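Good morning,

Attaching, inline, the backbone tokens for the sequence recovery test we're adding to the shared suite. The designed sequence is right after.
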């Protein structure tokens, strides 16, 4: 392990492979590359210190490199103890001059230490993936608040926390919810999570999904993607929900919808993606059939009640990397993937770069938006203007060689008038 005051990673000798992986991701991120080229010329972040807590992957490395090109003095910590790609962390340190505080498999104590070490950078801006940096500043490091201009948040989970802070009047700087942008949640959440969550399940288990009963807990955009992909691979999909509108949508999309207590009796594979706690309870798991698989693709490891399940567990046997058999006191066994943590990043590589291209374009432009508009913004949650969303979509379509129609002046006039009818 490399341990110095400037960074803390697992092995600097992994840097060469990490550089190759970063460059491979960058080839499939044309929108972020275009933004990076502009940032290199304009330097919108010159003189600003940036602390980011994100999944340390080849795609997030591309984002940090783009922000550094824009003049940001950046440091990076992990946003999840198990999702770090150690070769990428090494490459960021060795080849790109970005200090990293992250190691794959670090325990919770080390994870918290790394968050605090990254905050020692005394940031002017924060990029968060789950709101741990922002929450730590507000709870433990309030002396940093005067220097912080704002933050960008990537996840649904983090936005839930930020909204709670705003509601209670505790949010002390403007925060931009990147996940609220259409070019983030409509694409990253649906197509990215849908593919990467199933990729993680398959890599960890090597089981066939066709013919299995696949239970998706929640029907937000991430869950929609997972349900869609599971059905496309031949699974019989059940959706559980607490929101009547989302439950109705799932029914109209052709899925069976029922309470988790009922689904727990018949499911073969369970995937929770809600952002809430104890979605799959210990009792639900005790009700499951012999050999059921349980996984989580929500940001934090709270959706599956692993702590409660331990009280009913006689033995935990590791079967394969990131796959454990839990032998229960009711005579059955279930298989828990990735210790209940993010299955798509622990068991696989997260979202494809082409999807993260749009998400991280939102992050980069979100940081620029807050910096440029700092004097106008209150200590509230914001969403990027629709015009920025449209520009990202245009850049993506251009990179794919896809052209679309434009409105004629007559059509624009008609859409903006009220006097012309049938």
């Amino acid at each position: 392990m490399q341990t110095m005051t400037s960074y803390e990673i697992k092995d600097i000798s992994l840097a060469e492979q990490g550089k190759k992986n970063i460059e491979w991701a960058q080839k499939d991120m044309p929108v972020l590359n275009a933004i990076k080229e502009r940032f290199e010329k304009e330097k919108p972040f010159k003189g600003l210190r940036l602390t980011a807590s994100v999944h340390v992957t080849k795609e997030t490395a591309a984002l940090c490199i783009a922000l550094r090109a824009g003049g940001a003095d950046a440091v990076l910590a992990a946003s999840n103890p198990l999702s770090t790609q150690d070769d990428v962390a090494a490459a960021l340190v060795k080849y790109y001059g970005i200090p990293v505080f992250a190691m794959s498999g670090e325990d919770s104590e080390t994870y918290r230490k790394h968050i605090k070490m990254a905050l020692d950078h005394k940031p002017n801006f924060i990029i968060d993936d789950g709101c741990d940096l922002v929450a730590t500043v507000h709870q433990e490091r309030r002396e940093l608040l005067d220097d912080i201009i704002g933050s960008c948040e990537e996840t649904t989970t983090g936005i839930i926390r930020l909204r709670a802070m705003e509601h209670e009047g505790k949010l002390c700087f403007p925060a931009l919810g990147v996940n609220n942008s259409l070019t983030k949640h409509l694409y990253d959440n649906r197509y990215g999570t849908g593919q990467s969550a199933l990729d993680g399940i398959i890599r960890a288990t090597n089981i066939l999904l066709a013919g299995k009963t696949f239970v998706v807990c929640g029907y937000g955009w991430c869950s929609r993607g997972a349900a869609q992909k599971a059905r496309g691979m031949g699974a019989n999909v059940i959706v559980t929900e607490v929101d009547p509108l989302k439950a109705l949508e799932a029914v109209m999309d052709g899925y069976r919808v029922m309470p988790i207590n009922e689904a727990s009796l018949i499911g073969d594979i369970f995937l929770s993606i809600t952002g809430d706690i104890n979605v799959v309870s210990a009792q639900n798991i005790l009700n499951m059939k012999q050999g059921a698989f349980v996984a989580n693709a929500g940001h934090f490891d709270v959706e599956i009640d692993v702590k409660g399940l331990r009280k009913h567990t006689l033995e935990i046997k590791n079967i394969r990397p990131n796959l454990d058999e839990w032998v229960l006191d009711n005579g059955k066994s279930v298989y828990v993937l990735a210790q209940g943590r993010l299955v798509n990043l622990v068991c696989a590589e997260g979202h494809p770069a082409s999807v993260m291209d749009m998400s991280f374009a939102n992050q980069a432009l979100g940081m620029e938006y807050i910096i440029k508009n700092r004097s106008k913004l209150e200590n509230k949650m914001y969403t990027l203007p629709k015009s920025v969303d449209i520009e990202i979509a245009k850049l993506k379509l251009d990179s794919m060689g896809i052209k679309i129609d434009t409105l004629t002046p007559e059509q624009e006039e008609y859409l903006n008038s009220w006097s012309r009818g049938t």
